[in-house]
Amino acid sequence: MTAISAGQVKQLRDKTGAGMMDCKTALTETQGDMEQAVDWLRKKGLSKAATKAGRVAAEGLVGVSVADQSGAIVEVNSETDFVARNDKFQDMVRQIGAVAAKANGDLSKLLATPLPGTGAKVEDYVKDMVATIGENMAVRRTAALSVAQGAVAEYVHNKAADGLGKIGVLVALESKGEPKALAALGRQLAMHVVAASPAAVSADELDPALVARERAIYTEQATQSGKSADIVAKMVEGRLRKEFYQQVVLLQQTFLGAGGDGKATVEQVLKDAEKQLGAPVRVSKFVRYALGEGIDKKEEDFAAEVAKAVGR
User: Fold this and answer.
1) How far lies 84's CA from each of 54, 63, 76, 227, in Å?
2) I need a surface site. Which of 14, 27, 169, 170 has the fewest CB within 10 A?
3) 0.90 exceeded by the pTM?
């Protein structure tokens, strides 16, 4: 039997993050071959990871990364907030965010993208981390923005570390204005998007189904007034413009960023900024990711789980 030294065990543990006894077993099973031992642990880790895949991962972090005229955002989920505060998990999300721009918003491409310095694709690296940390994890979604001329700005809310938090926003501004001033404006708009959660930049970009639902509600309410159909139609369109659009359309929302007077709309703020920048400014697009939104979180019966664990 090949003798396994403590140094070999430590080296394998440093490379993989696996437990000490698992590392010793792996080296013993592979006669001390380090690379085969790594593969042995990965295979073992993947089999363990498979048993965790059914568990709901609704915690985690949103990561953002920007570079002048482009930016990318990712959501990486874990089962618990405790793991989201783990340095290894945060470093993983940061690395994934750093390469996300290459995928240009395509999740499958991102999962197949190699992570520099790891020798693994994103998907495989996440699976290795599942085995190492012991929780189900997943790269849930990604998006990327870019402009030919202008700036892409970011903002992270409930910040866990640089570029990492519970809510992440990217805002793309098209303009010939001074880049630093433009980026500062974009960051203020990103902060507004976090707080106001608009559905689209302009009314034309709203989901038709969303508008139809609101129109139906307003129509039902207006019909109860007993007024004629043409008056009802005008009442409905007026409410859509004055109420609904002002709530969900970015340009029509009351600006909530620093320096706002509580009355000016985002569109008015942009017009004022154009005077200072000496050039038109257009919000081409924004992306807002809130951690776990849309995930059905399983309600656990804690007492039942404890009883099951102790065999009652």
Assistant:
1) 19, 12, 9, 56
2) 14
3) no
